[in-house]
Amino acid sequence: MTDSRPLPLKEALAQACREIEQSIDRLLPPVSGDESLLIEAMRYAALNGGKRLRGFLVLETAALFGADHDAALRVAASVEFLHAYSLVHDDLPAMDDDDLRRGKPSTHKKFNEAFAILAGDALQTRAFEVLLEPATQADPTIRAHLALALAQASGAAGMVGGQVIDIRGEGRALPLEQVQRLHALKTGALIRYAAEAGAILGGAAEDDPRRLAIRAYGDDLGTAFQVADDVLDSTASTEELGKTAGKDEDASKSNYVSLLGIDGARAEARRLSTQARDALSSFGPRAETLRSLADYFVERRS
Fold first, then answer.
1. Going along the chain, which residue ranges are E strands?
2. Has keyword Metal-binding (predicted)?
3. Which of 25, 66, 127, 158 is most buried, taking the most CB atoms under 10 A from its CB?
4. Cα atoms in the 13 Å half-sphere on the side-chain side of 228
């Protein structure tokens, strides 16, 4: 008899990371010719380490909704392409101006600014291309819903909009409500999408209570991730983070730590993690890995 118990979170994350990176490698193979350096820069950005937490969310929620695992791997790779593009552009001198990403030179330092911009552009379009290819899902309506949800999460009403608030907030004391909105857009929207994408792939209707529960989980998880990230930016070393520590303080940015203090921010992260876990009550023991992930999001050290 096959053991149906879920893997411990550490093992599940490691297994998913391997599978997602294999999927990225297949969907973005090296090429020869004039475009080879662009593809090399894209692969460098997309395969340069990382925990694949967003991709892992896709796989876990897709399993809850009975979606095909190979299809879920394609969607997971797609969200990782989109996330990689955002990091490439975020590190540019015109944005956060960071020379390190995951302990290695940022894409613009490894190549140059022009190739970093173009690699980010191409990773973004590849994300949507993968979602819209028939190999991802035979039903064109589901493919369209996946692409629409990703566009909404990553555009002016999502991640990019949050980045605008972040840039405009440098050197200003933002109120807590504005910081919450900033990070709900900049970080939380893509994490919420990653959670909900599995439900979309599994054919769940927009008003399906199970999909709404997963969406609520993703909302709280995304905010908890950012609160914990602000704590790490203030307490962890550059070596632990794999990127330059203390960037928010250096740029005089308002964040959860500057507004709530380290202890207050930690308490808020734990509250949100508990709320995320509670959103999964209707799924019973099948969602235990997702509950463990909510704890991990606020306990991580990098």
1. 100-101, 104-105
2. yes
3. 127
4. 22
Mean of the per-residue pLDDT values of the chain: 93
pLDDT given at position 6: 74
The DSSP result for 219-261, as a single string, is HHHHHHHHHHHHHHHHHS-HHHHTS-TTHHHHTT---HHHHHH
Q: What is the pTM of this model?
A: 0.93
What's the CA gap between 118 and 265, in Å, rounded? 37
- Using DSSP, state whether 67 is helix, strand or coil: coil
Cβ(95)–Cβ(88) below 8 Å: no
Burial label, 210 (beta-carbon count in 10 A; 0-12, 13-18, 19+): middle
Distances (CA, A) of 90 to 50, 85, 100, 167, 232: 16, 8, 11, 11, 18
Structure token pair of residue 275: 């709320």
Looking at domain 9-299, which CATH architecture does it have? Orthogonal Bundle (1.10)
pLDDT tens-digit series, residues 231-259: 998 887 777 666 676 666 666 788 999 99
